[in-house]
Design a protein that fits this description.
Elements: H1 8-79, H2 88-98, E1 102-108, H3 134-146, E2 150-151, E3 155-157, E4 160-171, E5 174-184, H4 185-192, H5 195-198, E6 201-206, E7 212-216, E8 224-231, E9 240-246, H6 252-301, E10 306-311, E11 316-319, H7 321-327, H8 331-334, H9 349-360, E12 369-374, E13 380-391, E14 397-406, H10 408-435, H11 437-464, H12 469-497, E15 505-507, H13 509-526, E16 530-535, E17 542-544, H14 546-563, E18 573-581, E19 584-590, H15 598-602, H16 619-629, E20 633-638, E21 644-651
Parallel strand pairs: 16-18
Antiparallel strand pairs: 1-5, 2-4, 3-4, 4-5, 6-7, 6-9, 8-9, 10-11, 10-14, 12-13, 13-14, 15-17, 18-19, 19-21, 20-21
Helix pairs in contact: 1-2, 1-6, 11-12, 11-13, 13-14, 14-16
């Protein structure tokens, strides 16, 4: 205890000094608060004065500009002809009524002399001394030489200050005269300064010598607190708009002092409670934000889709784990990197750079863009990228967010499906040729038999020694014709059934239809079906695989021939038409069979659906797949003459 006793007085002195210090700080805080409030009030008053004065100044300028434009229009109408319009005086009076700040309007001739015309024009009967004043003459000379409206310097007339606006007018390149509007400072301020401004301030127009030319205010002058000056241009010539604010009687400091004492007394207690509540809310908000961030982080980390954020310069600012797994790079290897990126494939650099520039320009396609990237180990993979603007909490565009999907396996599956589709199409062509084998054999046998007959006849005549040269030439020509006929049949069969990669080239749809008819016309004759070709002229070329389109037509024609088995012989007609449409060409195959039931028509193009007992149900499905792969479409409709019409369209090359 003895060791603590010397320190006890120091503790007691501090204990008693603390309230005094607190009171002193309290008083100092109140005084400081009052001073700050006073300064704040002055600054707010100053800002309000400046803003209001600028508004009035802009309003005055707008009024002067509008009046100038109206004077120019009036002058053009007046000086355009030798004789002014009959309603010119009425227009001048209307102009003066709409512009109370203008004392009167005068008309000057080319020499600057007043015109004494219609007394209806304000002041038209009398020529005042104000037009002979030096400021008006100087403004007239300047406006005539420059061809521009000119404001004159201020002048006192009849105990009131005015300024002139001279608007020159020219006809056929020569000065025809001028319109002069004499503005009264007092009237202009009385008309253009609003009542609310006059209730708060005094607005005066002061010249370069400090003389007041006009003013407006609805308050009594007192102790000046603030003043703001703005050049009054136009009319210029050193004129200044001066807005003055006067101090009003108020008990604001006393009221603020009492309010501050009461508020601070209650605030000491309330602030601690409010601070506690604020801290509790902040802790709750931070905890909720932490949970939300953890949830979103877990959600992003569990995605299989790669996410990559870039700023407006293309610099990577964020990657999620899926993107890192996809490329094999760590976040530290990618964040803050600018192109070229380490996952860009060197052989695809130009294409990737072009896609990058389009993305930064906001031109990325909505359906995404496919690019080939490389992993860290050099392995290539295909990626589908969707880009979207990155918008922050304040609504600003700060960059781009990209969703990256590895589509390597999907593309492999698509390629496998394409190969299977090609095999299926090839198999269908072989099946078609197999079904038509007997007819095609007959088609080939006919020219071969004719060749054999012509050859035997020629040999017999040669042995007899009585075969003239002309008959031999004719027989040989017929032999060649039959050989060409057989060759055409064989070529068509070979082109149709040969296995090859799809060849997309510009094709004539009419030539394709001719070849398809050449393959099936023998079978049609055998079944008593007439094939009618109605091919349009001047059709646009289509970009397609010739063999695939021939397969479509051949399949549709065979289906039409099969559908007319029970049709009377006189009605067995298959019509193949081609015509130009807006987007390309349309081809139709119309039969006169029994038609297709509505229920069957809805499923006609489905795989493995067939209306034939022995059909596999793949022919029409393959036909539609081929047409859609060429960016066309296929459908079926009823034939008004009985039967069905199969149509398909193809875009022009």
């Amino acid at each position: 205890m003895e060791t603590l006793s010397p320190r006890l007085p120091k503790l007691q002195s501090w204990y008693w000094a603390a309230p005094r210090i607190a009171i002193g700080l309290f008083v100092l805080a109140v005084i400081s608060l009052l001073w700050l409030l006073h300064r704040q009030e002055l600054e707010e008053q100053r800002a309000s004065l400046i803003g209001d004065t600028l508004w009035v100044e802009q309003n005055l300028q707008f009024n002067l500009s509008r009046s100038q434009e109206q004077l120019q229009q009036l002058g053009q109408d007046h000086f355009a002809n030798d004789k002014p319009a009959a309603n010119f005086s009425a227009r001048i009076r209307s102009f003066l009524l709409n512009n109370p700040g203008i004392a009167h309007v005068r008309i000057l001739d080319a020499d600057g002399l007043p015109l004494r015309r219609d007394p209806g024009v304000a002041g038209g009967a009398d020529v005042g001394e104000d037009l002979r004043a030096e400021p008006v003459r100087q403004a007239f000379i300047i406006s005539r030489s420059t061809g521009l409206p000119t404001f004159g310097a201020s002048q006192e007339t009849g105990g009131e200050w005015h300024f002139a606006l001279l608007v020159p007018h020219f006809r056929d390149g020569r000065h025809a005269g001028s319109l002069v509007a004499m503005y009264s400072f007092r009237k202009l301020l009385a008309d253009q300064v609003p009542w609310w401004f006059a209730q708060k301030y005094r607005l005066s127009v002061v010249d370069a010598n400090g003389a007041i030319l006009g003013s407006k205010s609805n308050i009594e002058a007192g102790e000046e607190t603030l003043r703001h000056r703005i050049p009054f241009d136009p009319p210029g010539h050193g004129l200044v708009l001066v807005a003055t604010a006067y101090q009003a009687e108020t008990n604001l400091p006393r009221n603020l002092l009492a309010l501050a004492i009461v508020a601070l007394g209650a605030g000491v207690v309330a602030s601690l409670w409010a601070q506690r509540r604020h801290m509790q809310k902040r802790l709750d908000a931070e905890q909720a934000l932490s949970k939300e961030y953890a949830f979103r982080k877990a959600m992003e980390d569990s995605l299989f889709t790669g996410l990559r954020a870039r700023d407006l310069d293309g610099r990577i600012i964020y990657v999620n784990p899926a993107f890192c797994r996809m490329t094999g790079f760590e976040p530290a290897d990618l964040v803050n990197r600018l192109p070229p990126m380490p996952y860009w494939a060197p052989e695809e650099h130009e294409a990737t750079q072009a896609a990058h520039q389009k993305s930064l320009a906001g031109q990325a396609p909505n359906e995404g863009v496919e690019l080939r990237f490389q992993r860290k180990n050099g392995e290539r993979f295909d990626a589908l990228i969707y880009e979207a603007p990155l918008i922050d909490a304040e609504g600003r565009h700060t960059g781009w967010m990209g969703s990256v999907v590895d589509i390597t396996e999907r593309k492999r599956a698509e390629e496998l499906a394409r190969q299977q589709q090609e095999k299926l199409q090839f198999t269908a062509r072989l099946v078609t040729m197999g079904e038509m084998a007997s007819t095609l054999a007959h088609e080939i046998n006919q020219p071969l038999s004719a060749i054999s007959s012509y050859t035997t006849g020629c040999l017999n005549r040669l042995e007899a020694g009585d075969l003239p040269r002309d008959e031999l030439r004719e027989a040989l020509g017929k032999l060649a014709s039959q050989a060409q006929r057989a060759g055409r049949v064989i070529r068509r069969i070979y082109d149709f059934v040969r296995r090859s990669e799809p060849q997309s080239a510009s094709c004539d749809i009419n030539a394709i239809a001719d070849d398809a008819v050449g393959l099936i016309e023998g079978d049609a004759r055998k079944r008593g079906v007439r094939i009618v070709l109605s091919l349009g002229e001047g059709l646009p070329q289509v970009r397609a695989d010739r063999v695939m389109l021939e397969q479509v037509l051949l399949n549709l024609m065979r289906n039409g021939i099969d559908a007319m088995q029970a049709t009377p012989a006189a009605d067995k007609q298959l019509v193949v038409r081609s015509a130009a449409i807006e987007e390309g060409v349309e081809i139709s195959v119309a039969d006169r069979g029994a038609g297709i039931a509505r229920e069957a028509a809805a499923r006609l193009f489905e795989p493995f659906f067939s209306t034939k007992p022995e059909g596999m149900g793949m022919g029409l499905n393959i036909c539609r797949s081929i047409v859609e792969s060429h960016k066309g479409r296929m459908w079926v409709e009823a034939n008004p003459e009985g039967g069905s019409i199969f149509r398909f369209t193809l875009p022009a090359a």
